[in-house]
């Protein structure tokens, strides 16, 4: 590895907010910097750094790029990598989480719980919320469902009490049109907590009446108080790491084939707020619970039938009518989701992944995975297991 200890890089991420997004992006940047021998400096106001006759003292900048920072980088000819999707400055090279994919993941999670009523809640001016909403509703549409949306102004959530009361009132008005049970995806964990609290004040039970998914996996928000909050981990550390890797190329005078790259979310972390299998048919709901709790074992349709004490033909018919899919298909889907998580998040062998996901052996796992996903497990791992790995092709 060609290290250059002389390189001096400024990191401007508004870390005083202490959100996981900023802290993990910083951690990813710093990990790459340590590997390369950079001298990194946290600098919340890099645009106000004095410019000497020889120019700026920074070789590169990683920032939530404000207009002032972008202007400073241009004036000093300092390579700049943007990690703020909602930045007012366009056409900057950047690395961002894939919020469209997070919307798809939220829809897939709620669909797997048997929901047929859906909603989305997010700030109307945020690019990330709009992208997430697009992914959410597109995935639902593929399965024949629609969703209602509550898009609100961020200004209602700050400042005067009247603004907050207007926000709460708008959510309660939205609730009047819900058909229960309903699954809701929210663009941030904090706002998901607001929704949970408003639901409770409106005598709605989480997760029996309303299943809620947040975004960001801020553990301090998600894990207390009950109900704990299911959330999508956006992979912010990988955003920081890849931003640093791309900045290295810019500092080397290289051009980037793609100005912007997107990092897929790491995972969806299930907690109590979606601990429900919504189905009008109680027998099918029982079957869904049984499959979810036992799919890591080598179960088959007969095991599910015995688990809910009914006959096979009747259960298969009811399953198809209620969910539009087969029992064996749901078993395979959950096993594949478990397997994909192990492939992306662990270094387990293919044989170990197959066993952990409930496949009878590695060969069976390989065939099923390749048939459904269109690629072998090893290729999926290579594509998705990129945490803290260099992206030399970008």
TrEMBL record:
Superkingdom of origin organism: Bacteria
UniProt keyword annotation of Transcription present: yes
Keyword tags: DNA-binding, Transcription, Transcription regulation
Pfam families according to UniProt: HTH_18, Peripla_BP_3
Domain (HTH araC/xylS-type): residue spans on this chain: 285-383
GO terms of molecular function: DNA-binding transcription factor activity; transcription cis-regulatory region binding
InterPro entries, per the entry: Homeodomain-like_sf, HTH_AraC, HTH_AraC-typ_CS, LacI/GalR-like_sensor, Peripla_BP_I, Tscrpt_reg_AraC-type_HTH
Entry protein name: HTH araC/xylS-type domain-containing protein
Source organism: Rubritalea profundi
């Amino acid at each position: 590895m060609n290290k250059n200890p002389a390189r001096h890089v400024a990191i401007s991420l508004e870390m005083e907010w202490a959100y996981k997004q900023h802290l993990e992006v910083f951690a990813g940047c710093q990990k790459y910097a340590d590997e390369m021998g950079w001298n990194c400096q946290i600098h919340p106001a890099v645009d106000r750094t004095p410019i000497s006759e020889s120019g700026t003292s920074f070789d590169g900048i990683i920032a939530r790029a404000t207009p002032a920072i972008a202007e400073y980088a241009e004036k000093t000819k300092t390579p700049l990598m943007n990690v703020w999707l909602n930045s007012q400055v366009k056409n900057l090279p950047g690395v961002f989480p894939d919020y469209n994919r997070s919307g798809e993941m939220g829809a897939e999670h709620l669909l797997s719980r048997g929901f047929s009523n859906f909603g989305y809640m997010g700030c109307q001016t945020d690019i990330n919320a709009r992208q997430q909403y697009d992914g959410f509703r597109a995935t639902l549409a593929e399965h024949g469902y629609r969703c209602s949306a509550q898009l609100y102004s961020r200004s209602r959530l700050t400042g005067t009490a009247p603004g907050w009361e207007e926000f709460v009132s708008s959510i309660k008005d939205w609730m009047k049109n819900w058909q229960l049970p309903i699954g809701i995806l929210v663009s941030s964990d904090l706002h998901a907590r607001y929704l949970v609290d408003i639901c409770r004040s409106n005598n709605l039970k989480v997760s029996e009446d309303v299943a809620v998914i947040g975004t960001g996996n801020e553990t301090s928000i998600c894990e207390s108080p009950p109900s704990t909050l299911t959330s999508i981990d956006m992979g912010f550390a990988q955003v920081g790491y890849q931003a640093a890797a791309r900045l290295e190329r810019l500092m080397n005078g290289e051009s980037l084939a793609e100005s912007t790259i997107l990092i897929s979310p790491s995972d969806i972390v299930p907690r109590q707020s979606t601990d429900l299998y919504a189905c009008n048919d109680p027998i099918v709901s029982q079957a869904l619970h049984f499959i979810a709790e036992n799919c890591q074992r080598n179960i088959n349709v007969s095991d599910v039938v015995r688990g809910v004490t009914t006959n096979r033909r009747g259960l298969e018919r009811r399953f198809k009518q209620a969910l539009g899919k087969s029992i064996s298909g749901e078993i395979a889907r959950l096993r594949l989701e478990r397997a994909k998580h192990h492939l992306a998040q662990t270094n387990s062998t293919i044989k170990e992944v197959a066993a952990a996901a409930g496949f009878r052996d590695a060969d069976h796992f390989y065939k099923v995975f390749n048939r459904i996903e269109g690629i072998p497990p090893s290729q999926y791992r290579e594509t998705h297991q990129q945490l803290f790995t260099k992206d030399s092709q970008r």
